[in-house]
Amino acid sequence: MNREILNKIREINNKKTQKQKACVVTFGCQQNESDSEKIKGMLEAMGYEITESDITADSGGGAKAKDGAAFELENCGVVIINTCAIREHAELKAFSRTGQLKRYKDKNKDMLIGMCGCMVEQEHILEYIEKSFKYVDFVFGTRSIHKFPEILHNALLNLRQNNTEITETDIANITEIEEDMPAKRGSLFKAWVPVMYGCDNFCSYCVVPHVRGRERSRKKDKILDEVRTLAANGYKDITLLGQNVNSYKDPGNKNYDFTELLRDVTEIEGDYWLRFITSHPKDISGNLIKLMGESKNIANHLHLPLQSGNNRILKLMNRKYTREDYLDLVEKLKDSIKDIAVTSDIIVGFPSETEEEFEETLDLIKRAGFDNIFPFIYSKRKNTPAEKMEDNISHKEKTDRFAELIKIQREISAEKNKAYEGKTVRVLAEGEYKNDKNKKNNGNYLSGRTSSNKLTVFEYNGNVDLTGSFVNVKIKEGRLHGLFGELE
Ligand code: SAH
Ligand code: SF4
Ligand code: F3S
């Protein structure tokens, strides 16, 4: 990152009579959330005040619905849309939000609009932005985040730019990890810590390796220092982040893998839960399971994307495990780690998936007994191997399978949550629970998460702000979407 330019922009902004505002809108996964924290950190260091205005807030209802948000936006000097390309729907959402910005820019000619993130690492998307979103002032991809101050500086000098010149080799060749960007964290008690970037797995449906580049890991010392600082500052929920965390390898010592890293992190002093996401089922080692079973601060939850319960589809997806391997793994996890919650991602309607093959997914879901799943309808992505497979499942079939999946999982989730009734669990309180139904009871409700990542709601009428603290909650009711209880 170019500090000189960063300071130059700050000087320009500091001379202005009014504080300059900036807004970052984030789509996509935690990786994008983490990148946005860096973009916000740089903006703040350049003298901008970050506003949290949400431009969906005034879509449909017009500016009337959220005067505050509209006003904030109108006064923004910089608006950044950090995009996600994982499914078509994600791309459409980002375009729709960018479209909404036009009328704000019409009112405020000085507003600069930038698009960044995974979408703009694709050539066809760049062409489309160039053609249809002429008021977008600059674009920068996932590998150029550290160049943001320079990009913004050029934009301030009124140069419409494309900073992405995309080639596959380019993105495949990034090896460096930039460590010097400031970050503005979104929370005072929950934090993301990226440990590795990119992905080498090339699942046949997935755009991530194409927009995030090859796997590269951060130096272990950098990660340990970051977690130490977080723990010392009272952070309670720390998530190690990567598209495939289990592929972590310290660049200085190839024998130092993810389990080693996790072991060293757990030894850092402090009262916090440690999470990690995402794990590929093929890379979960016996050592990792053992460590999870022994450790006191590793959270009791593993997100383990399955995608399909049928071996032919798994092979077409290039997932490199079978349904039998997956079930064995879940059994080992449940045997070694008491009450571990397992969640998963499922894709329905992958090209050529038959009804019988889909039923195998349903069967596996019942056998695995997931605490929750995130189901997705297959979405064809440009330049992926699956793009060339015939997308021959009708929309109706896909939505029917999706609905069936949700129906079955709801029963399992409700049953899992019921098993918590009568137990006392430790909960990290996150803030007020806003739900009209509960408000009718005239009570004040807080919500938080358990170590197993269950949403937990409890009544609290005291004066002390519990946000960001651990509390013990006695569970009275296990509901479909979470747990309900009272402070103990
Ligand atoms: N690296 C993680 C997450 C990747 S994206 C992993 O390997 O699990 C999150 C989820 O989006 C994936 O697990 C998958 O279920 C879903 N997904 C990815 N590409 C998709 C596509 N083309 N269509 C539908 N869902 C997709
Ligand atoms: Fe995509 Fe597969 Fe990599 Fe996950 S492991 S990011 S699904 S290619
Ligand atoms: Fe994440 Fe979406 Fe990019 S899921 S890595 S933001 S394509």
> Number of DSSP helices?
17
- Helical content class: 25-40%
SS class: alpha/beta
Strand order of the biggest β-sheet: 2-1-3-4-5-6
| Residue runs with pLDDT of under 50 for 5 or more positions | 56-67
The biggest beta sheet reads: 6 strands, parallel
Radius of gyration: 23 Å
Name the bound molecules: S-adenosyl-L-homocysteine, iron/sulfur cluster, FE3-S4 cluster
N- and C-termini, Cα separation: 49 Å
Mean pLDDT, as a whole number? 91
What global shape is seen?
A: globular
Give the topology, please.
Blueprint: H1 3-15, E1 20-26, H2 30-45, E2 48-51, H3 62-65, H4 67-74, E3 76-83, H5 88-107, E4 112-117, H6 123-132, E5 138-140, H7 148-156, E6 161-162, H8 168-172, E7 190-194, E8 196-197, H9 208-212, E9 216-217, H10 220-232, E10 237-241, E11 249-250, E12 253-257, H11 258-266, E13 273-277, H12 286-294, E14 301-303, H13 311-316, H14 323-336, E15 341-348, H15 355-368, E16 372-377, H16 395-418, E17 424-432, H17 436-439, E18 445-450, E19 455-459, E20 470-479, E21 482-487
Parallel strand pairs: 1-2, 1-3, 3-4, 4-5, 5-6, 7-10, 10-13, 14-15, 15-16, 19-21
Antiparallel strand pairs: 8-9, 11-12, 17-18, 17-20, 18-19, 20-21
Helix pairs in contact: 15-16
The protein binds S-adenosyl-L-homocysteine, iron/sulfur cluster and FE3-S4 cluster.
FE3-S4 cluster (F3S) is lined by residues 28-29, 31-32, 84-86, 118, 207-208, 211-212.
